Amino acid sequence: MNSANPVASPRVPALTNGSGAAAILAAGIGSFAVAALALAADKLTPINSILIFYKPTGALSGVTTAAILIWLLTWAILQSRWAKKTVSMGRTSFVAFALLGLSFLLTFPPIADLF
Question: In sequence order, what E strands does 7-71 have?
Fold first, then answer.
């Protein structure tokens, strides 16, 4: 049985986590985009009118479409930059979950009404 570290072996490429970190952080940014755009559309009439892509649903159609585009664009950019790198998963996860927490707070009516 060989107890050598397979990551350090010259025949096995080093494992990277950049792709996973890119997906996690992009999800956090996308969730925050939904909350920020929903809050902006709710409170600011000009933004509300810009985000109406389909009249029966109102600004929600633009909010979700724009947030999905932000998420995909962020994921593509981070993936292209981090694909072959090893990044700090602790820091990346912390930022992603902090953005997710802020998203929940911004969509909670008592908090949203403060703005």
Answer: none
